[in-house]
Amino acid sequence: MKKTIHFVAGLPRAGSTLLCNILLQNPRFSATPTSGIIEIVEMVRNRWNRIVEFQAAPNEEAKLRVMKWVLDGFFDDPKSDRPVVFDKNPGWLAALEMAEAILDRKAKVLVPVRDVRDVLAEFERLWRRNAATWELPQEHANYYKWQTVEGRCEIWMSANQAVGLAYNRVQDALARGFTDRMHFVEYEELTRRPGDVMKGIYEFLEESPFDHDFDNVEQVTKEDDHRYGIPGLHEIRRKVEPAAPQWPKYLGNMADRYVRLNHLWRSQKRAPAESQPGNAPAESIGQPSAAPEPVGAQA
Hints:
Blueprint: E1 4-8, H1 16-23, E2 29-34, H2 37-48, H3 52-56, H4 60-75, E3 84-88, H5 96-103, E4 109-113, H6 116-130, H7 137-141, H8 149-156, H9 162-175, E5 182-186, H10 187-192, H11 194-205, H12 247-250, H13 263-270
Helix pairs in contact: 2-4
């Protein structure tokens, strides 16, 4: 069955796993855990022109067909009759030109976001919960900066780390003019007013409404978070309900420096899309830390 493919790409710890499992209640929808298919498609794109035979006889149309077959083939599951699929990976925001060339249409991306202070507080909470028996790669590579909560937040906000990388991807997708392809899903609103938020999502997707059960969300998508180095990264609660802000407890007053970052998507929600031809703030955040890999960036 030919599937309609949409994407879920946003900030870590912003409800993407929760959102996908809510969507899975609809018998028309399927959704992935964090998926690596984008990397396979990019491998075809990147490797193709390095092959000497394709250098001697270039064929860009064939390359694009193969990339399309890879993506379509990944979701061509004969055991599933669900016609709409959501592929979850934050990397899609950095590859929307490629995605639209493959899809041959404008992409639709659900972008989970959350108060950046609480995103950082969640990473701090998970680190403290596991610190007795786990050493994160970031801790090993940034030992001295890791000794304070300020330092740990700076590391997570670095351009090659979980939060900074995801934030920069959101910002750059807006700057490249993809505003109308992106539907922001604020975690605070999803947990406070799930019915209204899902109504907006269905309108964006141009799908018929569905009556979701927000008191009983089964976690269908499962991930081994030990592979990301942060146990508990993709666990969700069964009932959708608001949670108190975590940043006062875990970050304190130093969290104030990150308040301005929330303006990125809130300004987009307030202003009409046609008045925003990619005018996202130009300043990227964070410099790469010494950590060699963005552990947890796939959340």
